[in-house]
What does this fold into?
Amino acid sequence: MKEDIVRAVERAFAVLECFSLDEPKLTLNQITEKLGLPASTTLRILTTLVSLSVLKRSSDKTYSLGSRVYFLGAVAQAHDKRHQVVLPYMTELRDDIKEAVSLYGVEGEYRVCYEHVPSLLTMRCVVRVGDRFELWAGASGKVLLAYAPEDIVTRETRKLAPITSATIVNKEKFLEELVIIRGQDYSISHGEREEGIISIAVPILDWRGNALYALSLAGPALRFTEERALTLIPRIQRICVEISRRLLA
It folds into this structure.
């Protein structure tokens, strides 16, 4: 009986995870395919979630997240320590530097954007909260991997593949870069994930020296040059130390 209840909860949560910023509305068939369950089972779950206002069914027979999820999300964000502590620092940095500031963490085999403050300038990097990216490409991913356990680093280095012409795909070179990052407490990327973008990232560490998050600044290389980016590193490192102390307090 307990196993049935647990399985039902797991399946309901799996339904919610089918939705994303890119796919906010899904049909029964699309959800069924994502879950790998029989259509009849999926329909029963969807019907229950709709009755609870967790999901909403539209006239075009598509499903989307319902009002209960919206309200719960607002509660979670308002009381989330990352949001309370980190966002003011990010906003102050963005207002001063004008470039986009993002906070990333590890979720499974990806780095996920937890917070993002967009650039104030017209030409900008577009990132959304909840976006997932490879751990092995880009400044933030490299920072998170540089402080990750060896088994995770091994797993991720097996995935190295070109996203742009600047993506590091040589395992030895990649591992050497991780050593350098640990020695200097920051990472820089020259278009490794997106052509023409320079990004820098600094780790937010716990008391054991593990990376909780990566705080990143990014902008077009024509404007956000490496020289300018590197002058900001000491300031960002000080901010990350302050954030770490407050998060762990």
